[in-house]
Design a protein that fits this description.
- The protein starts with a strand and ends in a 6-residue tail after the last helix.
- The protein is 44% helix and 14% strand.
- It contains 19 helices and 16 strands.
- The protein folds into two domains: 3-200, Rossmann fold; 244-476, Rossmann fold.
- Bound molecules: 1,4-dihydronicotinamide adenine dinucleotide (NAI).
- Residues 7-13, 32-35, 38, 72, 85-88, 105, 108-109, 127-128, 158, 160, 162, 272-273 line the site of 1,4-dihydronicotinamide adenine dinucleotide.
- GO terms for molecular function: NAD binding; UDP-glucose 6-dehydrogenase activity.
- Belongs to the UDP-glucose/GDP-mannose dehydrogenase family.
Length: 482
């Protein structure tokens, strides 16, 4: 019987291991983490992350062949296959600050594996790491491990998307496994392949060399984010010309070479991965002496920052160039629907932009707590291009200017404007007439996700702005925004 241990019980480690446990009842799967609250959450009735379908999978396996523990050393020592799914954020200081991946957690996990292992192990990179990380990990394990213990490093990047993690894991487009092209390397690849082969069709399991697997993950995220920045760049041109970005995206996406997915214009992409992974790619390109390639990918992030900035400017300029003292309802704070994750959510930048203009912001998100909102808005913002921390609001300013509402109607009561920043399904079917009646006039809606029926809301009486859509006469008269 194979025993699997996964280091890191986060958005990736938790769901991935739960699905492996579900599909491989004869494999014992343990997820370990240094964070006691996280592990306590996984062992409770209220899981530490919100992910549709996850409760059910965990309920079926926990206590059978799936467990969660803080006893990291024991479970790593016992395992045959060790997945490492720790966080790999962008470095905030030192060499490569603002771009390079911070591998502190990864390195400490690797050193711990070397310390505690008494038997051979397959060590699987599940975290997204810079290309060539496996080489560094091999060196750490070789120089620090006990004699006679052999390691094989595999790269098995995760392609799940938050909000659809369980579906993605049960039926992945592909599983990618990279390994050394030696007999031992091939055997390790085959062992991991056998695990996935219990439920993933063979033609969806791709095996490559280590560097291709590591780079493919960074490249895939860069391509996905590039599509969003491409359609967002076109959305600005649509507003300037009277074209409708939804119509343009539909027409463009009908080309089979382009395809329809990931072409929804928005206030910008967020999440813990896109920006971090592109920055990482940019840094790697710079390190390898490829400034033009670095510049090409950097532009994807610049357009994303531009889009968030453009949205805030649109709100402020439409409302007579001032939102000072005006209540603005913010609907949605998570970086996308069906997750409570707020890492790098565009809502943080939009709210900070509005707060900087002295607005009073009332936030409602079905999955994000008030504490989380406060933590996010209190966080110093890192300016990736010129590494430095931008100052957030003080606690007193925050208390005066930020409130968290129990529902959308409470958020909108007595507001001058509503900003929709996450595409939660419930925002499509709100009683907007009820909201309108409780708001100051003129009542504005700024839809950063294109979820509302613009014509219907204009009929109610709202001044409506929807990203990339033909502008209201009201907005046309306002100064151009950039
Ligand atoms: P996360 O921050 O939710 O989870 C990481 C966990 O690792 C934390 O609970 C932390 O306490 C734990 N940890 C850190 N160092 C540890 C150590 N030495 N020993 C034990 N536990 C330790 O991060 P998330 O979102 O799960 O991401 C993990 C990796 O997967 C990252 O590299 C990310 O880029 C990648 N990834 C993330 C995706 C996502 O949608 N969140 C999708 C695909 C890949």
């Amino acid at each position: 019987m194979v025993k699997i241990c996964c280091i890191g019980a986060g958005y990736v480690g938790g769901p991935t291991m739960a699905v492996i446990a579900l599909k491989c009842p004869e494999i014992e799967v343990v997820v370990v983490d240094i964070s006691e609250p996280r592990i306590a959450g996984w062992n409770s009735e209220r899981l530490p992350i919100y992910e549709p379908g996850l409760d059910d999978v965990v309920r079926q396996c926990r206590g059978r062949n799936l467990s969660f523990s803080t006893d990291v050393h024991r479970h790593v020592a016992d395992a045959d296959i060790v997945f490492v799914s720790v966080n790999t954020p962008t470095k905030t200081c030192g060499l490569g600050a603002g771009k390079a991946a911070d591998l502190t957690y990864w390195e400490s996990a690797a050193r711990m594996i070397a310390d505690v292992s008494l038997s051979d192990k397959i060590v699987v990179e599940k975290s997204t790491v810079p290309v060539k990380t496996a080489e560094a990990i091999e060196k750490i394990l070789a120089h620090n491990g006990r004699s006679g213990v052999r390691y094989q490093i595999l790269s098995n990047p995760e392609f799940l998307a938050e909000g659809t993690a369980v579906r993605d894991l049960l039926s992945p487009d592909r599983v990618l496994i990279g390994g050394r092209e030696t007999p031992e390397g091939r055997a390790a690849v085959a062992a991991l392949r056998d695990v996935y082969a219990r439920w993933v069709p063979g033609d969806r399991i791709i095996t490559t060399n280590l560097w291709s697997a590591e780079l493919s993950k960074l490249a895939a995220n860069a391509f996905l984010a590039q599509r969003i920045s491409s359609v967002n760049a076109i959305s600005a041109l649509c507003e300037a010309t009277g074209a409708d970005v939804a119509e343009v995206a539909h027409s463009v996406g009908k080309d089979a070479r382009i395809g329809p997915r990931f072409l929804a214009a928005s206030v910008g992409f967020g999440g813990s991965c896109f920006q971090k992974d592109i920055l990482n790619l940019v840094y790697i390109c710079e390190c390898y002496g490829l400034p033009e390639v670095a510049g090409y990918w950097r532009e994807v992030i610049r357009i994303n920052d531009y889009q968030k900035c453009r949205f805030v400017n649109r709100v402020v300029s439409s409302m007579f160039n001032t939102v000072a003292g005006k209540k603005v309802a913010v609907l949605g704070f998570a970086f996308k629907k069906d997750t409570g994750d707020t890492r790098e959510t565009p809502a943080i930048d939009v709210c900070n932009g509005l707060l900087g203009d002295k607005a009073v912001v009332s936030i409602y998100d079905p999955q994000v707590t008030g504490e989380q909102v406060a933590r996010d808005l209190a966080m110093k913002k890192f300016d990736w291009d010129h590494p430095r921390h931008l100052q957030p609001l003080s606690a007193t300013e925050m208390a005066k200017q930020v409130a968290v509402a129990a529902d959308a109607y409470e958020a909108a009561r007595d507001a001058h404007a509503v900003c929709i920043l996450t595409e939660w399904d419930e925002f499509r079917s709100l009683d907007y007439k009820r909201m309108f009646d409780a708001m100051h006039k003129p009542a504005f809606i700024f839809d950063g996700r294109n979820v509302v029926d613009v014509a219907k809301l204009r009929e109610i009486g709202f001044v409506v702005y929807s990203i990339g859509k033909p502008l209201d006469d009201w907005l046309k008269d306002m100064p151009a925004v950039a």
